[in-house]
Specification:
With 154 residues, the protein is α+β, with helices and mostly antiparallel strands. It is 24% helix and 39% strand.
């Protein structure tokens, strides 16, 4: 597993493309896949935040995705598609519940703007990365895309 900073250090162009896709609409947006109690997938839109060399997720404590991550920390994150092409960014790894001091919370909240994150009823997870991938298309309808992949060392 790796932090976002380690991912950036090992694959800077891939990390930059990924961050651009996550923040392409202003607030960070993505789809978070978690594992249901029966082992099936569950998919949720949410606001992933890159701040201070880490990938963060504030998740509503009473939500199914929070229950899923507490029980099974495996996740996958996929960016929203751009309007003009079908470019993609995906990471997967493990989510770790994190206690944050006020300065860290404030930084994460500021990095998420204009989205609202960090409410009292939300749990903070750091999303550690195992793998990442981008798919880049020259135009809509192109197949296959150009793939770039990264895997955490070790």
């Amino acid at each position: 597993m790796a932090t976002w900073a380690e991912f950036e250090q090992q694959a800077p162009a891939l990390a930059a493309k990924g961050q651009a896709l996550l923040f392409q609409f202003g607030p960070p947006l993505g789809f978070l896949a978690t594992v249901r109690p029966d082992g099936g997938p569950r998919l949720h839109p949410f606001c992933p935040v890159v701040h201070d060399g880490h990938l963060w997720a504030y998740v509503l404590e009473r939500s199914p995705k929070c229950h899923d991550l507490r029980r099974d920390p495996r996740y996958a994150l996929h960016s929203f598609p751009p309007e003009a092409v079908d470019d993609e960014f995906m990471v997967r790894g493990h989510a770790i519940i994190t206690a944050a001091d006020e300065a860290l919370k404030a930084g994460i909240i500021a990095a998420a703007a204009p989205a609202s994150v960090g409410a009292q009823e939300e749990v903070l997870f750091e999303l550690h990365l195992d793998r990442a991938m981008t798919a880049t298309y020259a135009h809509r309808g192109q197949w296959p895309p150009v793939y770039e992949r990264w895997a955490a060392e070790g």
